[in-house]
Design a protein that fits this description.
266 residues, alpha+beta, 8 helices, 41% helix
Length: 266
Amino acid sequence: PRAAPPAAATNGQLDGGGVGWASVVRRAPAEPPPAHPPPSRHRNAEGGSTKRTGVGAGGGATDDSTVRALVAKREQARFSRDFDAADRLREQLAKLGVTLDDQAKTWRAADGRSGSITQVNVSEIHAQKAAKSGAASLDDAEINRLVREREQARYTSDYKTADRLRDHLERHGVSLDVKEAKWLAADGRWGQIPPVNISAAHAQKAARAGAPRLSEDEVQRILVQREQARARRDYKTADVLRDQLEKHGVYLDSKENKWQGPDGAS
């Protein structure tokens, strides 16, 4: 009798008595490492979502401080109507891969960084111009006095006086940065713009309006009455007496524990 043909693969064996079934897993080929690591990302201090330390179109590094400095110089040139210099700065930024949108007041780098085009500090430009012309400098005490008087004039809405004091400071090379609450001299000195003394603001406004002056004896008499009213917690009377002094150009400095008259008496 004929021999039976070889049995088909059974019991988990391949034809010809091969090995058992096995799973075949295909692995994706390994991706080569990137040629250049991605640029570092940081928080954008100007309000943008992110910042990068990247490379400009010309191959030079362009950190944000460099871009902001060039943008600020261009804005100052435009304010001074030096359009040739402004165009040169725009071209310099373009070579670094930075485009400007004057309408939206923003700049954008080729690597995605962005920031705002800050408004020109007009006071600083005027002060620098005066300093280059050889304007006499003021000492710190005089600057602080003028700055205080200007803030007090602004508080009482006496903008004419405030502008006059600002112009006087600028003519001596001192600019004001209201946003940062500081003054800056052309020689590098700077100081804080102090908070307003409300009593001084009202008193100086009355003095500018020509209020009649009090003698020192009258000032001292009212001060004694005011202290007596405060001692018995009669703050309403104390406020009335303080207002009376301010209407005659005399203000109180509770921090220094002294009074100051319009003629400098204290």
